[in-house]
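[#protein-structures] MJ: dropping Crossover junction endodeoxyribonuclease RuvC here for a structure pass
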Amino acid sequence: MRVLGVDPGLTRCGLGVVDGMPGRPLSLVAVDVVRTSAQDELGGRLLAIEAAIEQWLDRFAPDTVAVERVFSQHNVRTVMGTAQASGVATLVAARRGIPVVTHTPSEVKAAVSGSGRADKAQVAAMVTRLLRLDVRPSPADASDALALAICQVWRGSAQRRLQAAAAAAGRERR
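AK: finished. structure tokens for Crossover junction endodeoxyribonuclease RuvC:
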């Protein structure tokens, strides 16, 4: 399974692609951060993020896109930018028929570190370890995008198996 993880943000939007299956070693395919300037017009910034995600979908052909679920913060401007970038990622994938899932930050932290309260350094350390990398992905947006992809590889596979079992049970009752 190949997953594109998107850590949405207007100034820095993390993108990370991971190949893997539960119970098997994970592989890093690619990681980067799309940067836009706060001085640029909003529409142009969103178009830059859209273009980058479109290129990644063309280049890496993920099976699923995992996007961080927007959560409330004290800074409304940050939440708005995050939500807008998240919407762009969701739209671009949906336009191509690629399933999009969202995970909360605490779900992602728990999946990769075992604790939903892990800090960014702990998440980055575990991403580095799980992907057997020589150096930590930087900045944090990059490791967060990879953590989202890892979370989906592990949790998404379990969710699919549960859905398949429920569907099979429903067919047996008929």
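MJ: nice. The CA atoms of residues 110 and 116 lie 4 Å apart.
AK: one more thing. The chain has one domain: 2-173.
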